[in-house]
Amino acid sequence: MKRRDLFKTAAALAAGATAAARQFPPDYDASKDLARADWQPVFFDDHQNSTLIAFADLVVPGAREALVNRFLDRILAVETRDAQQDFLNALAFVDGESLDRSRAPFVDAPPDRQTELLSHLSHPAHRHFLTLKDWIARAYYSSEAGQRELGDDGTPPHGVFPGCGH
User: Fold this and answer.
1) What does the alpha-carbon distance between residue 77 and residue 69 come to, in Å, rounded to a whole number?
2) How far apart are CA 140 and CA 64, in angstroms?
3) Which residues pair with 122 in a beta bridge?
4) What sign does the dihedral 30-63-135-106 (CA atoms) show?
C-alpha cells in the first residue's frame, strides 16, 4: 500500500468514526424535554439532584420552578471532566458542611439550618459556594423565568439602535 493510500484510508476511517450531528425540527423546544413528568437525571445521582434543587432555590428563589437542576444536569453531562468534578466537589462540600453542622445531609437539614449554612458559606464567599452560585445563576437567568425577571417580555427588538451601524 502506498503512503498516499494509507493516509486516505486513515482519513476515511477517522471521518466515519465521528458521530453525525443530531437534527432537530425547526419548531423543537428543548425546554419541553426538561419539563417532562418522566424526566430522569443523566449526570447527577438522585441525592445530588435533590441537594441541587434545595440549594439552588435558596441561592436564587424560583430556581426550582425554573428547573435549574434539570438544565444543569444536561449541561454538565457534556462538560469537561474538570468542570464536572469541580461542580460535584462543590456540591459534596455543601453536604459535608451540612453533616458537620446539623448532622444531616443538606437536603434533609431543617430549613433554618440550610439558610444558616448558606449564610456561612457566602460571607465571606467560599470557593465552592461561588462555583455553585455561578452555575445556578447563569442557568436561572437563561431560563424563561429568569429572562422575565430581567425585563424581557419575549418580543424581539426592532428598529434602529443609535450608534449601531448594522
Assistant:
1) 12
2) 9
3) 125
4) negative
**What sign does the dihedral 103-107-113-114 (CA atoms) show?**
positive
User: Rounded CA gap, 135 and 130, in Å?
Assistant: 9
* Structural contact between residues 114 and 120, judged by C-beta atoms closer than 8 angstroms: no
Longest dimension (CA), the chain: 73
C-alpha 41 chain-centroid distance: 12
Q: Rounded to whole angstroms, how far apart are CA atoms 162 and 23? A: 38
Ramachandran sector of residue 159 (left: φ over 0; alpha: ψ -120 to 50; beta: rest): left
Q: In the structure grid, which three cell numbers stand for residue 29, read together?
A: 423546544
Residue 48 CB partners (closer than 8 Å, separation 6+): 41, 88, 91
* The model's pTM: 0.77
Count of residues making up the chain: 166
Three cell numbers, residue 156: 424581539
117-122: long-range contacts at Cβ-Cβ below 8 A with a sequence spacing of 24 or more? 118/55, 118/58, 118/59, 121/94, 121/97
Express each pLDDT in 76-117 by its tens digit: 999 999 999 999 999 999 999 999 999 999 999 999 999 999
User: CA 149 → CA 55, 66, 142, distances in Å?
Assistant: 20, 12, 10
Taking only the tens place, the pLDDT of each residue in 51-64 is 999 999 999 999 99
